[in-house]
Specification:
Largest sheet of chain B: 7 strands, antiparallel
Distance between the termini of chain B: 50 Å
CATH class of chain A: Mainly Alpha
Number of strands of chain B: 30
Strand content of chain A: under 5%
Helix content of chain A: 55-70%
Distance between the termini of chain A: 12 Å
CATH topology of one domain in chain B: Rossmann fold
Radius of gyration of chain B: 23 Å
Oligomer: heterodimer
Shape of chain A: globular
Structural class of chain A: mainly alpha
CATH superfamily of one domain in chain B: ANL, N-terminal domain
Strand content of chain B: 25-35%
Largest sheet of chain A: none
Largest interface: A-B, 23 and 27 residues
CATH architecture of one domain in chain B: 3-Layer(aba) Sandwich
CATH topology of chain A: Non-ribosomal Peptide Synthetase Peptidyl Carrier Protein, Chain A
Order of helices and strands of chain A: HHHH
Number of helices of chain A: 4
Chain lengths: 82, 537
């Protein structure tokens, strides 16, 4: 699992882009339906995550991310064991 | 005593320079330097390099495949392809068959392909294409059924056989845009108009073999196709072509590519210049070769221009690179481009500060009209354009064509002011909404919102207001008292789902509270004024 600090950083990015307060964002929220992110802002989300943690995420991987849990799973795979 | 009549709001571009290749196909086939690298495609991690001779050979193979499935001169060929050499080769393959290219919007994400095929149906219903060229990753049977035409995913093994030399008046391109009630309509651009527009843009920006283009703009859009691809081809300079997806995910790669290859010219919508200013951390070299960055396709904000210049000045970006440009598919592309050598003050309108779009490009005339004809300088009115690059009309749509082309002038649907020899684009008479370079008709958003609150006939008004960070899209909707749920969330989700548009503000209001005309239509502009304080509050 990613550590609490990383978890907080991800939720802060989500909150910055969606204008939903971090404490109101739930793990099972969908980026589009629940957080109101369109395709451009979803892409920016993944892009910001990749920069924040210095990981390289390719387009094919990025477009599969449609939920907060998928985003956390990606972070878990790529950050925790890096 | 009579005051002298005001100077009329009319502008004329310089005469067109007749030198250079006579057509775009001639530019593709120019023997000098044809084997040298011209087009670079693919992700930064796996670049592919193409010469004009290779692309020409590939185009001939597409021509053979298209003729093989029955495409004849005067037909239309749909191109549904990624942003790389495949699009370029098939585009010219269609021309070599004497057909017009019909570029279709290629999605950033390939997830949910069946729905993306479905979304093309309204356009196929209008376009009557004879073939579709696409990538094999979609369900080609479903695509063929939607298009009512054969689908090709591979060119022929050889390009043997005769190429057509298209007539100057043959249609080269049908560029689809959103019409009234959101119905697609295709601007028909002839070979002559296409070449004229490219010639004009190249002259306006003094583009030549020493330039280097770096573009991520979609080739299915006029700015990416005509400005991004065809100007470099015609002027004879290399192009580094990226994809919109790569730019959105890695804005840094676009700017870094400029430093890497000594890029000199690019175009992008306003949002993209802001995104790059915000997101690029390091450039990895010098941007001192960069000459021109056109900001167009969306309202241009002073803060965007200044923000990009300030952010990258320490990286060697020369002053005055990013500049406003105005164009539209109905004029093939460019109408006016700002020239920093002829500086102009911003126009201060009632809603925003508007930077100048400069003078008309060569061969283009602009005038601003009101109810009594051409207005005086400094007065706001409707922008009209006359040039050798105007569309022939909207494909098979006499009513829309007659409304747009009147006495040889194009009614752009945009509002503007002429002052000091410069054009200022102050608003959109057509009320089109723009987000991230894509245009939407407010009607479509309003209907999706009304459905979302379970009241198909509910009043709604979609409009945009200028914000700190570009335009803010607002939708006010009358929510029936019986509606159960969170209307803001439901409306936002429904509009995103139906149109891919992200609303910045959703305002639920009481039934009957939006201002209406006597015939009961919601008055968007009045609603925008009445609700302005809620948008900012």
């Amino acid at each position: 699992m990613i550590d609490a600090a990383s978890h907080d950083r991800i939720f802060r990015i989500l909150s910055d882009l969606s204008a939903v307060p971090p404490q109101e964002i739930k793990v099972d929220d969908r980026l589009r339906e629940d957080l109101g992110l369109d395709s451009v802002s979803s892409m920016e989300l993944v892009s910001m995550l990749s920069e924040e943690f210095g990981i390289d995420i390719e387009l094919e991987e990025a477009v599969q991310i449609t939920t907060v849990s998928a985003l956390l799973a990606l972070a878990d795979r790529r950050i925790a064991h890096a | 005593m009579h005051l002298p009549p005001p100077e009329p709001a009319e502008l004329q571009g310089l005469p067109l320079d007749p030198r250079g290749p006579s057509t775009l196909l001639a530019a593709l086939c120019t023997p000098a330097g044809e084997a040298e690298p011209w087009l670079t495609t693919g992700p930064a991690t796996a670049l592919r390099i193409w010469s004009r001779a290779e692309l020409h050979a590939q185009a001939r193979r597409w021509r053979r495949a298209l003729v093989g499935v029955g495409v004849r001169p005067g037909d239309r060929v749909a191109l549904w392809l990624p942003n790389d050499e495949r699009f370029v080769a098939a585009f010219f393959g269609a021309h070599l068959a004497g057909a017009a290219a019909v570029p279709l919007s290629w999605p950033v994400s390939l997830v949910d392909g069946a729905r993306k095929v479905d979304a093309l149906r309204p356009l196929f219903d209008v376009a009557a294409v004879s073939a579709v060229v696409t990538d094999a990753m979609f369900d080609t049977a479903a695509l063929g059924a939607a298009a009512g035409a054969p689908v090709l995913t591979e060119p022929a093994a050889s390009g043997a056989g005769g190429d057509v030399d298209p007539a100057a008046e043959a249609v080269a391109l049908v560029q689809f845009t959103s019409g009234s009630l959101g119905r697609p309509r295709g601007a028909e651009i002839t070979q002559r108009a296409l070449t004229t527009c490219v010639r004009s843009m190249v002259q306006a920006m003094s583009l030549g073999p020493a330039d280097r283009g770096v573009s991520w703009l979609p080739l299915f859009h006029d700015m990416g196709l005509v400005g991004g691809l065809l100007c470099p081809l015609w002027a004879g300079f290399p192009l580094h072509l990226m994809t919109p997806g790569e730019f959105l995910l890695h804005p840094e790669r676009w700017v870094r590519r400029f430093a890497e290859v000594g890029g000199t010219v690019a175009a992008a919508p306003d949002f993209a210049w802001r995104l790059a200013s915000r997101r690029v951390r390091s450039v990895g070299g010098s941007l001192s070769a960069w000459r021109i960055g056109l900001d167009g396709a969306e309202p241009v904000h002073r803060g965007t221009l200044d923000g990009f210049q300030a952010r990258f000045a320490p990286d060697g970006l020369p002053a005055g690179v990013v500049r406003p440009a105005y164009g539209l598919a109905e004029n093939t592309l460019a109408v006016a481009i700002y020239d920093p050598a002829r500086p102009a003050e911003d126009h201060v309108g009632h809603l925003r500060r508007v930077p100048s779009c400069g003078a008309p490009v060569p061969g283009v005339e602009v005038r601003v009209t009101g109810e009594g004809g051409v207005v005086g300088v400094g007065e706001e009115g409707a922008i009209e354009v006359r040039s050798g690059s105007l569309m022939r009309g909207y494909f098979r749509d006499e009513a829309e064509t007659a409304a747009a082309l009147v006495g040889g002038w194009l009614r752009t649907g945009d509002l503007g002011v002429v002052s000091g020899g410069q054009l200022y684009v102050t608003g959109r008479a057509k009320e089109l909404l723009i987000q991230n370079g894509s245009k939407f008709h407010p009607y479509d958003l309003e209907r999706a919102a009304a459905d979302a609150v379970d009241a198909a006939m509910a009043g709604a008004a979609a409009f945009s207001v200028p914000g700190e960070e570009g335009e803010r899209l607002v939708l006010a909707v009358e929510v029936p008292p019986a509606f159960d749920g969170d209307p803001v969330r439901r409306v936002r989700a429904a509009v995103l789902d139906a149109l891919g548009v992200r609303l910045d503000v959703v305002l639920p209001v009481a039934p009957g509270s939006l201002p209406r005309t006597t015939s009961g239509k919601v008055r968007r502009r009045d609603a925008a004024v009445a609700l302005a304080e809620h948008v900012h509050g």
